[in-house]
Amino acid sequence: MFKDTSRDSFALDVGLISAAVIICLAAMVVMCGICKWCQQKLGKRHKSSLEVVTTPDSNRGRNEKKVIKLPTGNKPVNTTPVQGQVPQDDSDRKTEPRSSVSDLVNSLTSEMLMLSPGSEDDHEGSSRENLGRIQFSVGYNFQESTFTVKIMKAVELPAKDFSGTSDPFVKIYLLPDKKHKLETKVKRKNLNPHWNETFLFEGFPYEKVVQRVLYLQVLDYDRFSRNDPIGEVSLPLNKVDLTQTQTFWKELKPCSDGSGSRGDLLLSLCYNPTANTITVNIIKARNLKAMDIGGTSDPYVKVWLMYKDKKVEKKKTVVMKRCLNPIFNESFVFDVPTEILRETTIVITVMDKDKLSRNDVIGKIYLSWKSGPGEVKHWKDMIGRPRHAVAQWHQLKA
Predict the structure, then answer these.
(1) Residue 230: strand, helix, or coil
(2) Which of 24, 34, 166, 337 is a good FRET partner for 354, with 20 to 30 A between their CA atoms?
(3) Helices then strands, each counted (H, E), the chain
(4) Could you give the residue ranges of the DSSP H alpha helices within the chain?
(5) What pLDDT score does 191 carry?
(6) DSSP result, 370-395
(7) Which residues lie across from 349 on neighbouring strands?
(8) What is the DSSP string of 297-331?
(9) What value does the mean pLDDT take over residues 210-214?
(10) What are phi and psi of 312, to 5 degrees?
């Protein structure tokens, strides 16, 4: 009997072709799924590596915008929100939704509350501004009737300059005598200066030395303006055993301003996370220090926006002639992305305008999450109440 091999061969060919077709279709499905997964993963990775730098808004009518850029090499992303929400990509909406502006603000507020001074409680001990510490030694040479003071070093001094540092030096007095003083050298751009300088008060009988108070004042040296006081320490010498050298670590306290108060300034802050802006409204001042011979001043206010230690943008009010209680009511808008609020400082300086000489500084205010207790409270209130103008009085400081 002969077998029909042609039919068997045909069936085998059909089976092989069907298997090949099935394998090809399966491969195409797998490849298609892999490509779509790659696209999604690559798209997500690309999005997460971008940083929001600013939100351009053509409706505000500005011809030029000064923008603060984060330290990144990526290109800025237009994140103009629609109806109060951050735009999302359809491809990522189901798998990885992006955080809304309110989430960013809430997370930033929580971080500020944890890191800012005095945020844990409102006890008096935690609310005082940290001005650093100073190390010094005192001793008396009975044979030579000489009182000796050695200024060693200071640590954790606050920054007084726009550069984020200070140029500290120390004045030494034996109170109540204020006419005769000694000074250390200036340490440039140093918040932890080492002096190791020794000073001698010769010809002082021991009986008079113990009636004096050693007064140390740490100041920030300014070449073109008045030196800014950083802190002070007082040590009554009748409480010290001068028969041998004594070394002390003392916390610096706020300097008492012998010239009296510099006045107060009322201002409001308003943060808009949707527009990425901070609005500073200079409302009014009261009891400003008289800087002119006539017993008055010609005040105006400068507002600096700083990112880290760099000046970004300056704005100023009009000059109010011969007025110690001026009313300004001027608002200034600064572009500040949410991501850099922690690195942002607003420096407000009340100035006295002089036509024939250099303008005098009446007082300053530093607003950020790491300033003094009153300034930190205002800053946190601004973050915690977005789109609301939060007003607060601030005492001007030297």
Answers:
(1) strand
(2) 166
(3) 5, 16
(4) 5-48, 101-115, 124-127, 206-209, 373-384
(5) 94
(6) TS-HHHHHHHHHHHHSTTS-EEEEEE
(7) 302, 364
(8) --EEEEEEEEETTEEEEEEE----TT-SS-EEEEE
(9) 91
(10) -105, -45
